[in-house]
Amino acid sequence: MEDDEPVVAVRNAYKRYSPKNVILAGLNMTIERGTIYGLLGPSGCGKSTLLSCIVGRLDLDAGTVKVDFDDRLQIGYMPQDLALNMELTIEELLTFYGRIYRLSWERINQRMQELMTLLELPPKDRQVRNCSGGQQRRISMAITLIHDPELLIMDEPTVGIDPLLCASIWECFFELVKKKNKTIVITTHYIEEAKSADRIGLMRNGVLLAENSPQMLMERFDCDSLEDVFLHLSKTQEGESGVTVKDYPAKQKQSPIFYQKQSFNKVRFLAQLKKNWAWTLRNLGVTLFVLFMPTLCLSIVCTSDIENIVTVPIGVVVPEDHSCPSNATPIRPCLTIPDFTCRYIEILESIYPVLKYHSYDEAREVAIKGNLAGILYFHENFTEGVMERLEKQSATSSKALEEGTMYTAMDMSSFPVAHIMVYRVYRSLEKLLNELCNECNFDTRLAHIPLDIPIAVHGGRHWKFQDSFLPSTVLPFVFYTMFIYSSSSLAMEITSGLLERYQTAGLTINEILAAQSLLQMLVINVQNIFMFVVIYGFCGAIMVGSYLTCYMIVVVSELFGMAFGVLIAIIVKKETLVSMVGVGLQFVAFTYCGCLWPKEGQHQIVQVMGMTFPLTPVSISYFNVSLRGWSLTKYEVYMNVIQGALGTLGIAIIIALLLWSKLLNI
């Protein structure tokens, strides 16, 4: 490393994001050792892109970038955005980056004390979120300086801060250059500020118009101020033709500026894991949501009783002259029930609210307004007609058949409500007929339709609707929770610039994802244990099969949610869009898994599409294990679980390919 060699040399650099969006157009730049280099230019001229290429975050399309260091640790990078973990304390934040830079604990403490004094930082136990904007800017600078790098690259470090703090930062720059022979590169669009630099580069439209000391530039172009120099060069550039699509050079394969010696380092991994753990503890709202939201929603499902969803009364039409005297004489000696209509109403009232009306028209008006679930009405000779049916059976007269029939008019606008009401009406009538048969020694089978279900192949006769509904809701809930948890945390780090700062410091995407996955596996297990204890222990949900097998199936679903969340986060990158995708996926999951409608009732095309969604076959296995008692050794069970696991593996491969190809600039 020679002192007369430039620290950074950029030659004939080209970079664009689309054919018409050229960012760098043949740029040349030289940064000398032990100087402050000010890169001056308006917003959008390509300053930040150029710095990203120098630190190795982006590759040039053509041209070269040479940095006189073999190790990335010799560079300190301060992005334009703060890119700070607001939940951490100053000490935790500096320690985190110190460990990423592979500093010893003793060296970290030493540098922390030096920087606290140099930058006049707040107490180190203060959380970053509780610091002022100027203090946060100095904390960001402390991160850049923590490992004492030789080259400092700072993207607009003084933007948006007061003049006093700005002067303090420049004093720090001068001291670093004078006492430690550091090289500092700053970008700015303030011409007055750039005058303090030893050497400046004037950049516009992706080209460096000129570079030299401020005084030499003013002498060269015979101007009294840098403003005049920049104006003169800008006017000259306007008269020249820019780079056209035709002139743009072919893309060249770029060698890495810094070779990553290790794609996975234990020290960096543990630092990231510890940082994530601190974030988890200090964001209790998010953590509690992830841990307990599925349990809360599923416990609501478990404690819901669909049998009682109908609260609207049913209307019974009873003629005004129809009475139910207790001392009336029964129509047969064997009977103790004098009037079947009255007895039926008593039975129905014992399980459901009943309103009596004296005319059908009156009841119908109330039902049309939605205040009745249905209407029941009887013939005046209902008692005689029913008795003749039981006594004469096939010899019953047509008149008796008509008189012994109960008529209903139900509100069929809600299928579940109508279904439940018809069932209740039928069961009440069946109970009445059973009583009549017992009193007159008729065979009680006469009171039933010729169908009996003594045993069930799977399940039980007294199982409730929610028992079969629950398995189709478990996996969509846990999938959605882990999708949001993994995607939102990663998207937040991308949009806030944290991920860029991590990677510039040397943290690899492998270490980032590994630390996130390990912590989320802990969250998964806490979430699942609590969920199983509540829904199967306290709520008494039915589990016929193995708890361990169902637990494993839930974990497979959550891993799929985690992987899918990471994929969406690195593609979409914006937290709002990630949340919107999550809501859409939630509806897809509920539909395909049979929560909104049974899979068997879906259109064939929807069923085929559903089986391509890895959560669907896994949900089928969960249903078969929990309610049918199937074991993991059964072909249908383990093949569906394997299909779900392969879906997760496929997404992991896609993530790896996207990161390897650098298509997404992650």
Descriptive account of the structure:
GO terms for molecular function: ABC-type transporter activity; ATP binding; ATP hydrolysis activity. Pfam families: ABC2_membrane_3, ABC_tran. One of its GO terms (cellular component) is membrane. It is a multi-pass membrane protein. It is found in: Membrane. The chain is α/β, with parallel strands linked by helices and 666 residues long. It folds into 4 domains: 1-69 and 158-253, Rossmann fold; 81-149, no CATH class; 272-302 and 471-661, no CATH class; 307-447, 3-Layer(aba) Sandwich (abc type-2 transporter like fold), CATH 3.40.1710. The chain is built from 24 helices and 13 strands. The strands form 3 sheets. The chain has a 6-stranded mixed beta sheet with strand order 5-6-7-3-8-9, sandwiched between helices. Strand 6, helix 5 (163-180) and strand 7 (183-188) form a beta-alpha-beta unit. Helix 9 packs across helix 19 (509-538) and helix 20 (547-572) packs antiparallel against helix 23 (615-628). The longest helix has 30 residues, at 509-538. The two termini are 31 Å apart. 36% of the residues are buried. The mean pLDDT is 88.
Topology readout:
Blueprint: E1 8-18, E2 21-31, E3 36-40, H1 47-54, E4 62-67, E5 75-78, H2 90-100, H3 105-118, H4 133-145, E6 151-155, H5 163-180, E7 183-188, H6 191-194, E8 199-204, E9 207-212, H7 214-220, H8 226-238, H9 266-282, H10 284-303, E10 314-317, H11 340-349, E11 354-357, H12 360-368, E12 374-377, H13 382-392, H14 398-403, E13 407-410, H15 415-439, H16 465-469, H17 471-495, H18 498-505, H19 509-538, H20 547-572, H21 575-592, H22 604-611, H23 615-628, H24 635-661
Helix pairs in contact: 2-3, 2-9, 9-19, 10-17, 10-19, 11-15, 17-20, 17-21, 17-23, 19-20, 20-21, 20-23, 20-24, 23-24
